[in-house]
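Lecture 7 notes: from sequence to structure.
We start with the chain below.
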Amino acid sequence: MTKLRLLVHVEGQTELSFVNRLLGEHLAAGYSFVRARLAGNPRMQRGGIRSWPGVRRDILKHLKEDRDMIVATMVDYYGLPQDWPDERDRRA
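Predicted structure tokens for the same chain:
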């Protein structure tokens, strides 16, 4: 059985370090690798997430490229762009 891979789209450098250094070690037994990828807005110096369509496009691309990959997000709700799905979108 193939071990799954976990890719976490994160908002900034702090989350990137957390996933790659701490979370990756902790989850190593369950996944063949755990990596983070910046989904933040590169123009913002102190974090800040891009709009939902761009992040969604990246997530779908990664899911299509690798069927054994799980893709997740780690973002702050504070300052989240209004075009991101909210709890009403997740009820259905």
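Points to note: The chain has a mean pLDDT of 80. Helices lie at 13-27, 52-65, 87-90.
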